[in-house]
Specification:
The complex is a heterodimer. By secondary structure, chain A is an alpha+beta fold. Chain A has 10 helices and 33 strands. Among the domains of chain A are: 147 residues, YVTN repeat-like/Quinoprotein amine dehydrogenase (Methylamine Dehydrogenase, Chain H, 7 Propeller); 97 residues, Cytochrome Bc1 Complex, Chain D, domain 2 (Orthogonal Bundle); 98 residues, Orthogonal Bundle (Cytochrome Bc1 Complex, Chain D, domain 2), CATH 1.10.760. Helices cover 16% and strands 31% of the residues of chain A. Chain B folds into 3 domains: 151 residues, no CATH class; 370 residues, Neuraminidase; 283 residues, no CATH class. Chain B contains 14 helices and 34 strands. The chains are: A alpha+beta, B alpha+beta.
Chain lengths: 595, 863
């Protein structure tokens, strides 16, 4: 009976939300509290409230903004929801009716949020201002901003409340170095001091989610391990990308081990959400590329790690290490994202299916589902988005397009692709607007983005993708829009950026970086080519969203835009910048990063 | 009679059981296919009794169990066959049935709950009926079998009611006539009479066969069917099985027939295997291949094309004898064609046989490959995988065994298992046909070069040849089709005792195979049998999930459809083929080999090893028929070689070079003096523009590539090297050109004819070597040389760094230490060490040995 009432309720609520066409639900983070669970419906946008015991949808709270993540007060009365926007906010929301009770301004594009047991403080990871906000919840204000490394997405608080741990999504080094890897940051909650930025093994990226062990002595993080030092000739045995779990010691701030989630003959592409079962026995990981749940027997895994004589490096390459410690369970929907567990029941959000998959750990062969609302049928754009994220379209499921192009942007690494010979790795490019700015690749070797999409499936996924599926991917990529820059103030250029705009013209940047997409589509030798690229004329890349796609230049050797304008433009071949003073350089940089 | 009385005695109980059974089947069964499971027919009862006697023999120790019937080596319950507490077959069958029931009761969708009470009743009886009441025990045994059959047929995995299968007669018990792993698949050995392609309808009810081909083809032999992923089309091999067509020696009506003492078998269209396709209803029968070549083992690819085995590869087996009445055996490898037979290409350029391709879940081809480069013939015929366009041929396990008695001699008929990463295979004999014991192979288990990845599914069947010894004939199981890791459809036959056979090892033989449902608990249910002709290759007639279609990245070698069979032992054929090759110079873009770090090795390099170069050696397929024709070198049945040359290795262990495509090659790692530290004992090949990328010699196969302290391997930053030729006389190999000149210049002053031993002249001693095969120097240097033997001796299959070639030879050590006043230039020393690193061979090509003896360069024409 309850089920019927709830379905009717949700049917009534949801049409009220839909202004114009129906929107996809796109469930992501699941935050449990007692017998309730709150799910972010990221594109509706809304928050779904569930009863985890009866597996029913109780209510859907429409949101007027894109929710990032949700933390819940200890008594379950209020939710703390991040507003994922340029002017980010942390909203306190009633868990009864979804009304916003109060809001605090934080940094740009806040995603992760966690709150202490007493409900006094919250921490918010601001993805694109690259920092951590510390919030006094009683006083409704931000008390500190702690710089992070790059794209902090996920933040968790230790059980003893003394340490906050943040996963930085992408690496921050210049891409042409030997060591390029993302870092996990440890912050002291007493004085907001950064205790350490801990680099994971070489090649770590897309650090999706974190959780603590029961005692808080260990931190677990899901991520990819990219083997960028090798040419992209094949996929077998994780030659390009492998998929991993790292275990860090909270006290020593060291990586104890990194283990691979893949099998020898089949990858576990794009591990995402991660949680520890309440009894501390199992680590539960959503594998979004292969639509699976991985269950790790935690005590057995730690015993094996601690009993092993292998180095961290050796373990991080061992495809057989986990063996029977790991179970891979297929789910009923597509795009497994985040995980929650209660009483041996595991809930996984299926991003592309508008539902949660529910699995009983005791007998995982039967998978149930909880519909989170009316999920419209997928149109071609949505199907293209799924194709882009689906590792079943990749030989042996090692990766999806997401693996080098998270959210269709860039992972920050250099890759040695075969389209122009070997031995000349170049920086991954964002796919935003690539269909409107031919040719593709920094060398312009692909006639257009359509060609590049088909070449990607053929030479990177080794898949003879049917043409109609490639067309859907084109449609998806064409539909992408730039996120407004975090450098904008209320959607407008800052004063500095206004000055920078003038300099952009004066220095000659606008002559090639012109038009709506800031590229005239031509190739130029701007003096940036070295060694085999000495004198090479590169395709003019778009500058839209360039604030997001560091490092810069064809080989990623410029860590910041500032470096592009200064140390890598000594001869003024790439615009006249040598005569600019400090203030002017800052202004010019701010303008470019505001695009 | 007894069965009937048992029925009536327990009538009320049984009625209830039957009613509940029927009810549960109709209500809970996902599909109503097996609603009416009939009682055991006479035939089934007879088979149950055959199993009874077999179990009885096992219990009494008359039939030995496999030595691998141990907990570590058996899949699932290791005690499933017979255990100490089993007193008689009724005990065994009760245990096995209970295990089956337990497993099915845990399976979602199975409805066996209703049979629990009957089982318990029988279990009680098994405990109480005294063992010495043999007849009562036999009746009890049959009762259990009756119930077991109903339980077995309640398996939700049996979601089909038809099977595709063939009837196929084993080759007769004679190695020259096809009782051999390679010989079994030549059409000249095929037997006919009652064979055919069939569909079995109502498999779990009242089975009846339907002949798919009927009169569309003349009476002949059938082999290797494969059903398309959508379940609509069947590929199969057929030959009219015209036999040897022996032609008298006087009448050479075909220049292309082969002479063996007495017979001159000729190879015609009518005695070769050809690939056909047909719809399951028998319509649209199409012949896809023709000619005098054997084309068989066809398999549907996810992209709709066909991968198959063909002896169009060219070349002969190296170890086959020149039997009287026997025929030369051709090498056959993986080929591919479109569904209409067009665009035939060769996927594998390997120079010995390959068998039975099937498709893995990732869309790759899995097959059995015989690997025997610089090692014995007996060592490796195990699973390999390759992409549908022939790239990345990689061994799964078992390519370097420690001892052939420690594991299956061959793993054949390999198939991926639904819902699992494991594979099923038949453990078969080298000197036998593809029948044996069924095993499970786990590709993800660390290979201990013995049994670790392998688990026995039928441990009551000893591993052929491994446990029986050479040339066994008794082999019970074949062509398993896996439904899951624990349930299979296969064929099985009982060995028959034929005391008339002179040879003891020919006395037990299995000739008639029926189709069975088999499980991992020891239970077998006969589905169908033809007492006159064996059944083989059962395939459930239904659709199955199609793996991802892989992109074709490279262009495989286009087969010349006008090619003939060549025997280059015949001078006129050699001349003709040379002319053809000269006129049709094939020019291809090279492949590129990229090695990221040669130092990466599973085995220790000797201390202070500095790798200076890589040597590339081409393996030449045998172009003349018959064993030791010629004797290439000291090693029996060895492969001939052409040393293509060397390429430099960078400081960081990386190398990158161009490689001629479509030829099998292997590598040696060289020190600064050009001596091999390590040598590969397998081969690789590539297609034009293929990027053959590997790590080192030999990296851990269970590892992702290990990042080093560098941005990119040094060799990959530059253009690939071109192979620099080695010393003259090594491409192709020729001892008379390469080595003898050094001996003539520096050695025969003391080691001449009649002088100090060993004699090192280039003459032929009429007493020792009347046929002029090898020079005196070559004969006499044998104890000082380094070589791997082939043949039946089990040669250590793996080379350890530093323990190879010149470095491990008496001759080099002797010369390096200083031998009287002998002073060799660097080049002259390298001639010696190059010879020692080349398995101390004598000849290069197999043909035209006279010219080679004269010191002429003889290039191979079959590559």
């Amino acid at each position: 009976m309850n089920k019927i009432i709830n379905s009717v309720l949700s049917l009534l609520i949801l049409p009220a939300l839909a202004v114009g066409q129906q929107k996809y639900l796109s469930p992501t983070h699941i935050t449990p509290c007692g017998d309730k669970g709150y799910v972010v419906l990221s594109t509706l946008p809304a928050i779904a409230k569930l009863n985890m015991d009866s597996e029913t949808l109780l209510a859907t709270f429409p949101m007027k903004f894109t929710p990032g993540n949700i933390a819940v007060s200890a008594d379950g009365s209020v939710l703390y929801v991040t507003e994922y926007a340029g002017n980010g906010k942390l909203h306190t929301v009633s868990s009864q009716d979804g009304r916003i009770l109060s809001s605090v301004t934080v940094g740009s594009y806040p995603m992760g949020v966690c709150v202490d047991k007493s409900g006094e403080r919250a921490w918010v990871a601001n993805r694109f201002s690259n920092d951590l906000s510390v919030i006094d919840l009683k006083k409704h204000r931000e008390t500190a901003r702690v710089p992070m490394v790059r794209e902090p997405k996920s933040v968790i608080l230790s059980p003893d409340g003394r340490t906050v741990v943040v996963a930085n999504y992408l690496p921050n080094q210049p891409a042409n170095e030997v060591l390029v890897t993302a870092e996990v940051s440890f912050v002291d909650t007493y004085n907001n001091a950064v205790l350490a930025h801990v680099p994971l093994p070489n090649g770590a990226q897309q650090l999706e989610d974190l959780c603590f062990s029961k005692k808080g002595d260990l931190v677990f993080v899901t991520h990819l391990l990219s083997r960028f030092q090798f040419p992209t000739t094949h996929l077998e045995r994780g030659w390009m990308n492998s998929n991993a779990l790292s275990i860090l010691n909270t006290y020593t701030k060291e990586v104890e081990a990194t283990v691979l989630l893949d099998d020898q003959y089949r990858g576990a592409a794009n591990p995402c959400g991660l949680t520890l079962s309440e009894d501390g026995e199992n680590l539960l990981i959503a594998i979004s590329g292969t639509h699976e749940l991985i269950v790790l027997d935690l005590p057995s895994m730690m015993r094996k790690i601690r009993g092993s004589e292998s180095t961290v490096l050796a373990l991080s390459n061992d495809l057989l290490f986990l063996g029977t410690i790991k179970k891979r369970l297929p789910l009923s929907g597509k795009g497994a994202r985040y995980v929650a567990e209660k009483d041996g029941k595991v809930f996984v959000s299926d991003y592309f299916s508008g539902q949660l998959s529910v699995v009983d750990l005791a007998d995982p062969r039967v998978v149930r589902s909880i519909k989170l609302g009316n999920e419209p049928e997928m149109d071609d754009i949505r199907k293209g988005e799924l194709n882009f994220a689906d590792a079943n379209l990749c030989f042996q499921n090692w990766q999806s397009c997401i693996s080098c192009h998270p959210e269709a942007r860039t992972d920050g690494f250099n890759w040695d692709q075969m389209n122009d010979g070997m031995g000349n790795p170049k920086n991954s490019k964002s796919l935003l607007y690539s269909h409107f700015t031919p040719p593709s690749m920094i060398t312009g070797i692909r006639k257009d983005a359509e060609t590049a999409v088909r070449a990607g499936y053929r030479y990177i996924s080794f898949n003879q993708l049917p043409e109609e599926e490639a067309v859907k991917v084109d449609k998806y990529l064409r539909s992408l829009e730039a996120l407004p820059s975090p450098y904008l103030i209320n959607g407008k250029l800052s004063k500095k950026a206004e000055q920078g705009k003038k300099l952009f013209e004066k220095a000659g940047c606008a002559s090639c970086h012109s038009g709506k997409y800031h590229t005239n589509g031509n190739k130029y030798n701007v003096g940036t080519g070295i060694e085999e690229y000495d004198g090479f004329a590169f395709d003019t890349p778009t500058l839209n969203e360039v604030w997001r796609t560091a490092p810069y230049l064809y080989d990623g050797r410029a860590k910041t835009m500032r470096e592009v304008l200064t140390i890598f433009n000594k001869d003024d071949k790439h615009g006249k910048t040598s005569n600019l003073n400090e203030k002017e350089l800052q202004a010019l940089e701010e303008y470019i990063l505001s695009l | 009679m007894k069965l009937v009385s048992t029925f009536t005695k327990e009538a009320p109980c049984r009625c209830v059981v039957l009613l509940t059974l029927l009810l549960s089947l109709t209500i809970f069964s996902p599909r109503v296919l097996h609603a009416a499971i009939p009682p055991m027919s006479q035939e089934i009862k007879a088979d149950a009794m055959n199993q009874y006697y077999r179990l009885d023999s096992l219990l009494k120790g008359k039939i030995p169990l496999s030595k691998f019937n141990t907990p570590e080596n058996v899949h699932r319950d290791p005690a499933r066959i017979v255990i100490g507490s089993d007193r008689d077959p009724a005990d065994v069958v009760m245990r096995q049935t209970m295990a089956l029931w337990k497993d099915l009761s845990n399976m979602p969708g199975a409805s066996v709950e209703s049979m629990k009470s009957s089982l318990e009743v029988l279990e009680q009886k098994v405990k109480t009926v005294p063992v010495k009441n043999t007849q009562a025990r036999k009746d009890l045994y049959l009762d259990i079998c009756t119930l077991r059959r109903r339980i077995a047929f309640s398996n939700p995995l049996l979601d089909f009611d038809k099977l595709v299968f063939i009837k196929h007669k084993k080759n007769i018990r004679s190695e020259p006539l096809g009782d051999h792993m390679a010989g079994q698949y030549y059409g000249i050995h095929a037997r006919k009479g009652g064979e055919g392609l069939f569909i079995l309808e109502d498999v779990f009810g009242t089975p009846r066969e339907v002949n798919v081909i009927g009169k569309q083809l003349p009476d002949g032999a059938y082999l290797s069917p494969d059903l398309s992923f959508d379940g609509n089309k069947i590929l199969f091999a057929y030959t009219e099985a015209d036999g040897y067509c022996p032609v008298e020696r006087a009448k050479e009506d075909s220049a292309y027939c082969f002479t063996y003492s007495g017979y001159q078998p000729s190879f015609t269209e009518k005695n070769a295997w050809h690939v056909y396709s047909v719809n399951t209803d028998g319509t649209q029968l199409q012949q896809l291949t023709n000619g005098v070549f054997n084309d068989f083992d066809p398999c549907w690819l996810p992209n709709g094309e066909v991968v198959f085995i063909s002896d169009r590869r060219g070349g002969f087996g190296r170890c086959h004898m020149n039997w009287s009445g026997g025929a030369p055996w051709f090498t056959y490898t993986l080929h591919r064609m479109k569904a209409d037979g067009s665009n035939m290409v060769r996927l594998s350029h390997h120079e010995t046989c390959e068998w039975q391709p099937s498709i893995m879940h990732d869309g790759n081809i899995v097959y059995t490959r015989w690997d025997y480069v610089d090692r014995g013939f007996f060592q490796a015929h195990h699973p390999w995988t390759t992409t549908p366009d022939g790239r990345n041929a990689l061994s799964i396990h078992g390519n370097y065994p420690l001892d052939w008695k420690n594991r299956p001699c061959m793993e054949m008929d390999i198939r991926a298992i639904p819902g699992s990463n494991k594979l099923i295979a038949v453990a078969a004999a080298h000197h036998g046909q593809t029948y044996g014991s069924i095993v499970l192979v786990d590709p993800e288990v660390e290979d201990d070069d013995a049994m670790s990845p392998v688990k026995m599914i039928t441990p009551e069947e000893r591993l052929p040849e491994t446990e029986y010894g050479y040339f066994c004939r008794e082999a019970s199981y074949a062509t398993p089709w896996p439904l899951s890791e624990d349930y299979y459809i296969c064929v099985f036959g009982y060995p028959e005792f034929d005391p008339s056979q002179k040879n003891v090892r020919d006395r037990y033989t299995t000739e008639n195979y029926g189709i069975y449902l088999l499980d991992a608990f020891g239970n077998k249910e006969l589905l169908y049998k033809d007492p006159n002709v064996s059944c083989l290759s059962p395939i459930p007639l239904k659709s199955r999930p199609k793996p991802m279609v892989q992109a074709d990245i490279v262009q495989p070698y286009k087969v010349n459809m006008n090619d003939k069979r060549w025997n280059l032992a015949r001078p006129e054929q050699l001349k003709e083929l040379r002319k053809i090759k000269a006129e049709n110079k094939e020019k291809y873009e090279p492949a590129v080999v990229n090695i990221t770090d040669l130092y990466e090795s599973r085995h220790q390099w000797p201390e202070n090893t500095k790798i200076a170069a890589l040597r590339i050696i081409q393996v030449l397929p045998k172009s003349t028929p018959g064993r030791h024709n010629p004797a290439i070198g000291y090693g029996t049945e060895k492969n001939a070689r052409a040393v293509l040359g060397t390429v430099p290795v960078e400081e960081d262990g990386s190398a990158s070079f161009y490689l001629r495509p479509y030829i099998p090659v292997f590598f040696q790692v060289l020190d600064e003096k050009g001596k091999a530290i390590q040598s590969m004992r397998s081969d690789v090949y590539g297609a034009p523009n293929e990027k053959i990328t590997c790590v080192g010699c030999h990296e851990n196969r269970k590892s992702t590539p290990v990042p080093k302290n560098r941005v990119i391997p040094k060799a990959m930053k530059r253009t690939p090297s071109t192979i620099k030729p080695e010393l003259e006389g090594s491409n192709p190999f020729n001892y008379v050109r390469l080595v003898q000149p050094v001996l003539d210049k520096h050695c025969i002053q003391c080691h001449g004819e009649g002088k100090a031993k060993p004699e090192l002249t280039g003459r032929f001693d009429p007493k020792r070597d009347a046929k002029k095969i090898w020079t005196e120097s070559y004969h006499n240097l044998r104890p000082y040389a380094f070589y791997y033997d082939g043949g039946g001796s089990f040669v250590e299959s793996k080379t350890y760094p530093g323990k190879f070639g010149a470095n491990d030879s008496k001759l080099y050590k002797l010369l390096a230490a200083g031998h009287n006043n002998v002073k060799l230039t660097d080049e002259e020393m390298r001639r010696i060490t190059l010879w020692l690193d080349s398995n101390s061979d004598f000849y290069g090509t197999y043909e035209d040995t006279d010219a080679q003896l004269r010191g002429e360069v003889v290039y191979p024409v079959i590559e």
